[in-house]
Design a protein that fits this description.
mainly alpha; 4 helices
Length: 73
């Protein structure tokens, strides 16, 4: 199943801006807290929260589309 989804995941990741990718990498890859991410990025915590919320929202929409596509197969 993962092999089927890999192109979709790569495509979604390709839609992220460099700043969005950095936030995702720091939060999920490096497991930093949001205040730590804000410090590393030298940006307000509210901005980090906003970026992560936007990415998560887009991910939910993309996941729903993937499920719809798989159910239709």
């Amino acid at each position: 199943m993962l092999e089927i989804n890999a192109p979709f995941v790569r495509e979604f990741a390709g839609t992220l801006s460099s700043g969005e990718r950095l936030v995702v990498m720091l939060v999920y890859g490096e497991r930093l807290t949001l205040p730590e991410v804000a410090e590393v990025m030298e940006t307000p915590l509210e901005h980090v929260e906003y970026v992560l919320d936007q990415v998560q929202d887009r991910c939910r929409v993309a996941r729903a589309a993937l499920i719809d596509a798989l159910v239709g197969v």
